[in-house]
Amino acid sequence: MAVPLREAISVGKYVAKQRLKGVERYPLVLMLEPLYACNLECAGCGKIQHPVDILRTRLSPEECWSAADECGAPIVSIPGGEPLIHPEIGRIVAGLIERKKFVYLCTNAILLEKKLDQFEPNPYLTFSVHIDGLRKEHDASVCRDGVFDVAIAAIKAAKERGFRITTNSTIFLGADPKRVREMFDHLTELGVDGMMVSPGYAYEKAPDQEHFLTRNQTRELFREILREPPSQWTFNQSQLFLDFLKGEIEYDCTPWGNPTRSVLGWQRPCYLMDEGYVDTFDELINETDWSQYGHASGNPKCQNCMVHSGFEATAVIDASTNPLRGLRALKSALI
User: Which residues contact 95 (CB under 8 A, 6 or more apart)?
Assistant: First the structure.
């Protein structure tokens, strides 16, 4: 089972509680960005394009914990930038675990082996390692040779020390489905605890704007990638979201499901679109005109998006409210 049972039960209870309380909009995953600085300059990412003064800014541990308390989501994903650059990342993670948050620390793994001593294996902690393909494709994606080998070595080292490891892979236009499937085979052989995939997302600041996928391109590509998947492949995602990527289910975005707290504040409306920041989570939820976002809204910026940070929450909520789809998701998780 890719998603740990403890996590699945916790999220299920949380969703049920929100529904019983009649809450219309609630978060599932807090996207916590304690810094934008990174040790890579990937062509598909816009974070490193921020001005130097912003790249030097860090959230304190107290600000990170406050964001988790304020938001209340059961899961905290820590992207960046590269969070392992943060001098107090160990303390930040420890404080989140004390709050019984399921932490996914996203990393390119360049510093992972060196930083492992700052952490202890814990059922609430997962390192989510960025792997965008096999050696050639991944190194091209991150714009630096040798990073793939470093990441694979770090995965092996972390697994040997008892840490839970998942991978996250962003698939862009031009990806070879056969090579992506070979990557899944390789990661499975390494013993990763789960894999996450998402179509390339259109960061406005990203240097490479030519390889983001349209909606139809996403469906065609993922039908090939996920065709008759081997039983040993384990995805740390809802089967319903994978069905959505293949065009077998139609969903609209749940942009408030993965709210983002960064060094600039609470990002409106979501992780991918920068339309201003507010000081509190309450302002984000209650003062954002959510009707202006998502595919059904007609907003041109949303028309090609099928990214996990917008649609995974939709799939999870669907599984918890639609018995037949919930049963499908449960069966897939238990295989």
Answer: 61, 64, 65
